[in-house]
Amino acid sequence: MSSLVRDRLGGFAFGADYNPEQWSESVWDEDMALMKAAGVTMVSVGIFGWAAVEAEPGSYDFGWLDRVMDRLSANGIGACLATMTASPPPWLAHRHPETLPRRADGTVLSPGSRQHYCPSSPVYREHAARLVEAVATRYADHPALALWHINNEYGCHVPECFCDVSASAFRSWLGVRYGDVDALNDAWSTTFWSQRYAALDEVLPPRAAPSFLNPAQVLDYKRFSSDALLECYLMEKEILRRVTPDVPVTTNFVGAWHRIDVAKWAPHLDVVSYDSYPDPHEPDTVIQAAFMYDRMRALHGKPWLLLEQAPSAVNWRTHNAPKAPGEMRLWSYQAVARGADAVMYFQWRQSRGGAERFHSAMVPHGGPITRAYTETAALGAELGRLDAVLGSTVDAPVALVSDWSSGWAVQGSALPSADLGQEETDFAHYRPLWTARVAVDVVSPSVDLSRYRLVVVPNLYAVDVAVAERLVEYVRAGGHLVMSFFSGIVDSAERVHLGGYPGPFRDLLGFGVDEFWPLPPGGAVALGSGGVGTHWSEWITPAGAEVLDRFADGELAGRPAITRHAFGDGVATYLATRPDEATMAAVLDRALAEAGVAAVLPDLPAGVEAVERRGSGGRWLFLLNHNKHAVTVRLPEGSEGAEGAAGAVDVLTGDVLGAEVELAGRGVVVARMG
Predict the structure, then answer these.
(1) Annotated catalytic residue, options 54, 308, 327, 423
(2) 479 and 544 co-located in one domain
C-alpha cells in the first residue's frame, strides 16, 4: 500500500504543534536546532494564528509566518499548515456579535477561550473563507508545505449552536432531508403532544423546554449540527483544493465520539487524523486508546495520523498525571502498531502563559535538559528505523459495529434506562477482544461486513430496516454475530418498529422480547452460569433460539439471558443483559472459536499487547509490554530465516530474535516477520 506520509515527507511524520507566534523571534533558531536534534520531520503550524496574521479585518501580515516557513524548509522540516479558522480574533465578535454561539438555554458563549463561533453564521464563514484563500494563495508553492490542517478539533467545545441563525439553517436542512412539512410531521411523530407543524418556518432547535423534548427533533439536530460543521470544513477544503490541488488535506478528530459523526466526515479527508490523550490514572486507558485507534484506522481502512498526544501530562483534567518513564514511548508505539504513520505532540514548546501553560510539551519550561525532550528525541531517532512499515496496516477478522445516530439516540431521554452510554457499551464488548489479542475494526453498520469472520454489535437501538437487513444477510450467508440488548427497537426517526421487539432482528435472533426490565443503578442479577448481569434484563420468549444461560434470580428467574440461534448458514448470539467481564469474555471466546478467529499471538502474558501490521514490504509484529515488570514472549514458529522463530529481527535494535523474546517493563519489540 502506498504511503501518503512517505510521499510527502520521506519517512514517519514526527513532531508537534508549533506556535512560534507565542515567542520572540530570537527563540526560533534554537527551535530549529532542537527540532533537528530530535528527529522532527513535520510540525503543525498556524493553528491559532488568525489574530497574528489578521490583526484588523482584511489587513494581513504574513511576515512572521513567512520567516517560520522559510526556516522549516531550510531545515528539512515539513509544515502541516493550518487554515487558522479554529479561533477567531476578538475583533470578529466585537464587530459581529451575531457570530457567537448560543447554548440550548440561550446563554451566549463569549470570546476569551476558543471555538467561539456559530458554524452556520454566514459572517463567520465569509471571514474564514477570505482568510483561507489568503493563506492558501500565499503558501501554495512553498517548499515546506506538506499537508493542510483545516480548522482544529471540530466540535470539541461547541458541537451545537442554538441561535436564530442556526435555527434558520436547521429549517433549510430539514427541507432538504424531508422535502415538505408533512414528511417531517410523519418522521417526528408530531401528533404526540400537539406538536404538529403547519410550516417548516415554525420549527425551532430543541432549546430548553418544560419537559421531554421530541426525541426525533433532538436526534435530527445532532445530525444537522455535525453537518453544519462539515459544511465549514468542506468550504475550506474547496478553496484549498482549487488553489493547491496536489496538497492533501486533513482535520484532527478528538476522542469523544459523540461530537461529530466522523464516519460521515471521513470520506472527505485525504488522511484521517486523531488527537489521543490517554489518562495515566485510568486503569483501562491503553485499551480505550486501542479502541479509538481501531476506529480511526477503519474509517479509511489504511494508515492514519496521530496528530496530537501529550509528551507527559495534560492540563485540562481535574487531576493531571504525567506519563511515567517509558509510557510515552510505549503508548506511541501502540498507535503505530494500530496503523499510525505519524507520531505528533501538542505542543513543541511549553507555553509561558495562557490556559495550556501547564500542558506538557516536547520542550518544557525547563528547556531541552528535561525528561520530556530527552524521551521524545530518542523516539524520533527510533522511528527513522521503521520507514518500511509506512503504508502497511492491520488486517482485522473481527468488526465491532458502532453507529453514530443510534449512539446519539440511545443516550437521549425518556428511555427505559438512562444508563446506556454508547461509548461505555462499546468498550465493554471491546475489552475482551483486546484481551483475546484479536484484531478489530470499529465500523459503521453500512460498511461491507462480508469480509469479517465475526461481527459484534454492542447496541444498535436505532436502525432502519434496510440497514438491519445487512446484518441479517451477513449471518444468513454464514457470518457469526454477537448482539447485545435493546437493539433493533426504533428506526432512524425514533419510531418504534411494530410487531414486537427486537423489530427487524426477531427472525435472525430466534426470539421475541415482551418487556424490558432495566436494572436499578448499581443493580445486578444472578446468572445460572455463576456470573452476574448488570444494567439491563429482558423478558425473552424463544422462537427457535437455543438458551445458553438463564437469569437465576429476580422476576425473570429461569428466563433466557444469553441465547444462540442458527440462521441460514451462520449463527447469532444474543445477550439480554450486560454480563460480568469473565462471562462476557467466555461468550466472545466461544464466538471467536466458532468463527475460526485466532489470536495474533496466543498465550501471551497478561498486560502484553500483540498487533501485526502487513503491507507489500512485509509484516511486522508489535509486542507492547504494559507491565512495569519484564516478561518473556514466545514468538510464532515459522518466522523468516530459520526454524522456529530464529531469524525474526527487532527493527528497533537490529537484533536477531530467538524463539523467546525478553520484553523489559514498558518495553517494545517490533519484529520483522517476513
Answers:
(1) 308
(2) yes
Domain holding 43, by residue range, is: 13-162+229-389
The C-alpha cell at 644 is: 522456529
Last residue of a domain, one of 564, 595, 626: 595
How much is the average pLDDT of 455-479?
98
Cα–Cα distance for residue pair 258/422, rounded to 1 Å: 9
pLDDT at 565 over 50: yes
In this structure, the answer to whether residues 632 and 578 fall within a common structural domain is no
Cis peptide before 347 (omega within 30 of 0): yes
Secondary structure (DSSP) of 468-502 = HHHHHHHHHTT-EEEEESS-S-B-TTSPBPSSSBT
**Average of per-residue pLDDT values in the chain:** 96
329, 354, 389 - which closes a domain:
389
User: Looking at the domain assignment, is residue 195 inside a domain?
Assistant: no
Q: Please say if 515 is a catalytic residue.
A: no
pLDDT value at residue 258 = 79
Residue 121 CA to residue 141 CA, distance in Å, equals: 31
How far is Cα 49 from Cα 80, in angstroms, rounded to an integer? 13
- Confidence (pLDDT) at 641: 45
Phi, then psi, of 587 in degrees rounded to 5: -65, -45
Same domain, 115 and 236: yes
Range 513-541 average pLDDT: 97
* Residue 303 located in a structural domain: yes
Instruction: Enumerate the H helices of 249-370 as residue ranges.
Output: 262-265, 285-300, 327-337
Q: Is 533 inside any structural domain?
A: yes
Peptide bond into 502 cis (omega under 30): yes
- Single-letter amino acid, residue 102: R
Give the model's confidence band at 642: pLDDT under 50 very low, under 70 low, under 90 confident, else very high: very low
pLDDT digits (tens, 9 = 90+) for 575-616: 999 999 999 999 999 999 999 999 999 999 999 999 999 998
Please list the residues that pair with 560 across neighbouring strands: 550
**CATH number of residue 632's parent domain:** 2.60.40.1180
Please state, in angstroms and rounded to a whole number, the distance separating the CA atoms of residues 155 and 151: 11
Are 567 and 657 in a shared domain?
no
Q: What is the pLDDT of residue 256?
A: 61
Active site residue 238: no
**Rounded distance between C-alpha atoms, residue 400 and residue 481, angstroms:** 10
Looking at residue 163, the DSSP 8-state letter turns out to be S
The one-letter amino acid at 441: D
**Per-residue cell: 38:** 530530535
Q: What is the pLDDT of residues 144-194, one digit of tens each?
A: 999 999 999 999 999 999 999 999 999 999 999 999 999 999 999 999 999
The CA-based angle 487-488-492, given to 5 degrees, is 115
- Catalytic pick from 54, 153, 375, 423? 153
Structural domains of the chain, count: 3
How much is the average pLDDT of 391-417?
Answer: 96
Give residue 589's pLDDT.
98
The span from the CA of 53 to the CA of 437, in Å, is 49
Across the strands, what pairs with 206?
Answer: none
Helix and strand numbers, DSSP H then E, in the chain = 18, 27
